[in-house]
Amino acid sequence: MPKGSEALTNARKEEIVNACALLYQTMGFREITIRDIGAKTSFTRTSIYNYFQTKEEIFLALLEREHAAWAADLDTVCTQHDALDADGFADALARTLEKRGCMLKLMSMNLYDMETNCRLDNLVAFKKAYAAALRAVTRCLEKFFPRMDAGEVQAFVYAFFPFLFGVYPYTSHTDKQKAAMEAAQVEHTAYSVYALTRAFAVRLLRACQLPE
Predict the structure, then answer these.
(1) Which of 33, 66, 170, 201 could form a disulfide with 90 if both were Cys (CB 3.0 to 4.6 A apart)?
(2) What CATH topology corresponds to 1-51?
(3) pLDDT tens across 12-49, in order?
């Protein structure tokens, strides 16, 4: 067990968030309760309230962690490559997101509930992680595409980040949704997170008249 109250607090929070992430792999956001999360930890359920007041705060901490991991991956892309063209950067960007299914699902399905039912300081912590991811994308654009001016970089970011809120629903469908689309005769083409993200990023970069 870690020494010191701050280390112990951080370890307990991490254990709670890990338990939440594990449950979210097989259960829906609305199904999961603090009791369920507590049952996956090594301490009593009521102890959770020493760290998080609501279930939504736990999920928001999970989303904050996902964004921090994504920003770290983006920084790795930026430091490991001296140069990337539009196709190369779109490929690398898409690769960073294909392993962030939890992040994309939470953003598209549950963000409003999380942000509404948490304390301000928790929301501020998440917004800082979100901003760090935004800055990481910006740094990549500024390094790999020096011809882009500030307005073009901003245009890319302001198009790309809203796009992320729709990736999960277009790449993940339940059997019930598939059956409904078939019954309604809705044409459906299966896309992966990687394929959808890469194609969109390439189009955005080409719209800035960058070389292919």
Answers:
(1) 201
(2) Arc Repressor Mutant, subunit A (1.10.10)
(3) 999 999 999 999 999 999 999 999 999 999 888 889 99
The CATH superfamily label for domain 55-207 reads: Tetracycline Repressor, domain 2 (1.10.357.10)
Could you give the CA distance from residue 51 to residue 43 in angstroms, rounded to a whole number?
12
**Residues 151-178: b if buried by 16+ CB within 10 A, e if exposed:** ebbeebbeebeeebeebbeebeeeeeee
Question: What is the reported pTM?
Answer: 0.91
What is the spatial distance between Cα 55 and Cα 59, in angstroms, rounded to a whole number? 6
DSSP string, 125-181: HHHHHHHHHHHHHHHHHHHH-TTS-HHHHHHHHHHHHHHHHHHHHHH---HHHHHHH
- Which helix (H) or strand (E) is 96 found in, with range? helix 86-98
Tens-digit pLDDT profile for residues 55-104: 999 999 999 999 999 999 999 999 999 999 999 999 999 999 999 999 99
Q: In this structure, are residues 95 and 194 in contact, taking their beta carbons and an 8 Å threshold?
A: yes
